[in-house]
Amino acid sequence: MGQYDRHVFVCTSGETCPTQGDVEGFVKALRDGVRQAKPGFEVRVNKSGCFSQCGHGPMVVVYPENVWYAGVQASDLPEILESHILNGRPVERLRYEPGVPG
C-alpha cells in the first residue's frame, strides 16, 4: 500500500461533521493512540475535507480496507483504534455504506 500500514481520514470540515463531534480531538486521540500502542507501526491520521456525506457524521475512513465509519463518537475511538487501525478488524456496528439506508 505504500509507506503506511493504514491511512486514516477524519472529516474535519463540511456542514455537519464539525458540529456533531470534537473531530479535531478525534484526530489527536487517534494519533496519540497509535503512537502509544504500537511504536513503529506506520499509520497516518489526517484531517480531511468533506466526504460529501453530510448528516452521517462524524465520519472516519480507514484505508487500505476502504472502510467508512459514520456517527462516530469519542467513546468509539478506542474500539476503532484497537480493532481496526491496529489489528485490521473493522468495527461492523459503525460501518457505513454510502447509499445504503440504515
Summarize the structure.
The chain has 102 residues and is α+β, with helices and mostly antiparallel strands. It is 27% helix and 21% strand. It has a five-stranded mixed β-sheet, covered by helices on one side.
Order of helices and strands: EHHEEEHE
State the secondary-structure class: alpha+beta
Percent range of helical residues:
25-40%
Strand order of the largest sheet: 2-1-3-4-5
The low-pLDDT segments are none
Give the C-alpha Rg: 13 Å
**SS summary, helix count:** 3
Q: What is the mean pLDDT?
A: 89
- According to DSSP, the number of beta strands is 5
Give the biggest sheet. 5 strands, mixed
The portion of residues forming beta strands comes to: 15-25%
Described by the principal axes of the CA atoms, the overall outline is globular
What is the distance, rounded to the nearest whole angstrom, between the alpha carbons of the first and last residues?
31 Å
